[in-house]
Specification:
alpha+beta
Length: 76
C-alpha cells in the first residue's frame, strides 16, 4: 500500500493508475489524512453494451405507424 498526497496524485496520476492496475492499492491523502483509495476494478462481464449496434441497425418511419387491427388483436 502506498500513500500519496493530492498534489502528487494529480502530478503522477497515470503512474498511480498503472500501479493500481497491477494490484497495488494507492491511498490518496489530504493533509496526511486518507480520503480516497485507488484500486484496480474487476473486468466487466461480457453482457449488454450500449451502442453495440450503432451504424448497423436503422428505424424508418413505418416503426411509428399504428399496428394493423389483426396484429393488435393477436397481442390481446
Amino acid at each position: 500500500m502506498t500513500q500519496v498526497n493530492i498534489h502528487d496524485a494529480k502530478t503522477h496520476l497515470s503512474k498511480l493508475i498503472e500501479r493500481a492496475s497491477k494490484g497495488e492499492e494507492v491511498i490518496i491523502a489530504r493533509a496526511g489524512k486518507p480520503v480516497a483509495r485507488l484500486t484496480a476494478i474487476e473486468p466487466l462481464e461480457n453482457g449488454r453494451r450500449f451502442g453495440a449496434l450503432k451504424g448497423r441497425a436503422t428505424v424508418d418511419e413505418r416503426f411509428f405507424e399504428p399496428l394493423p387491427e389483426e396484429e393488435l388483436a393477436a397481442w390481446e
